[in-house]
Amino acid sequence: MKVAVRLAAAIGLAIDIESYIIEDGEIGQQFAQALLERQASGVQVNAIYDSVGAFATDRQFFERLAQAGVQVVEFNPVSPLNLKKGWAPNHRDHRKLLVVDGAIAFLGGINISNVYSSGSSIRHGEQAADAIVDGVWSCVGSSNLDWRSAIDNDEINAVILGREFGQQMQAAYEKDIAASDAIELEAWQRRPLESKLKELGARLWGPLL
């Protein structure tokens, strides 16, 4: 993933990293190696991952970092036995943030996972929720347009004022539109029964989404 490679290359003197998903794949290993190298050079590295988002990641991935001196924190553990305070399984850390030297910050909607290593991430992965108003006011961050982001999740977003950045955002939006399929009412009404049943099942989770 080009973004992951750029982030890894930017890791410099002081590092704080926070992500909802950190997977033990090719991209995750690139990040881990970069963090381990900086820690070995005398830099204190701090990492936070979400217990649900990284549920499928082998614990040894994080133990390797911790054993090297990286301060690793599991946000809101799924198991009540590992909690230091009340159990709130709905409260998740959905932020994606990397701070370098306390001066440069990367944020958005991309997790540390191979899923985001190609354009397929637009269709199969989480993306940042981007709002562009009058080509001047832009918002980029980890929030999705759902109730979880509004009520339950910890999110991080940046508001940028400026026409140059707004134009870049507009171009990205138009590129995504060109790669998308329009949902027409007639075609949606003819969707297969399987899709309708899945939608019915999904409604049961509505209060949590």
Task: Provide a brief overview of the structure.
This protein is of the alpha/beta class and 209 residues long. It has helices at 2-10, 26-40, 59-67, 121-124, 147-152, 163-178, 185-189, 193-203, and strands at 15-19, 45-50, 71-75, 96-100, 104-107, 131-133, 137-141, 157-161.
Q: Secondary structure elements and their pairing?
A:
Layout: H1 2-10, E1 15-19, H2 26-40, E2 45-50, H3 59-67, E3 71-75, E4 96-100, E5 104-107, H4 121-124, E6 131-133, E7 137-141, H5 147-152, E8 157-161, H6 163-178, H7 185-189, H8 193-203
Helix pairs in contact: 1-2
Please state how the strands of the largest beta sheet are arranged side by side.
3-2-1-4-5
Largest sheet: 5 strands, mixed
Q: Which blocks of ≥5 consecutive residues have pLDDT under 50? A: 119-126
Chain-averaged pLDDT:
85
Which class best fits the helix and strand makeup?
alpha/beta
SS element count, helices: 8
Helix content: 25-40%
Kindly state the number of beta strands.
8
As a percent range, the share of strand residues is: 15-25%
Q: What is the H-and-E element order?
A: HEHEHEEEHEEHEHHH
What separation lies between the terminal Cα atoms? 28 Å
Radius of gyration: 19 Å
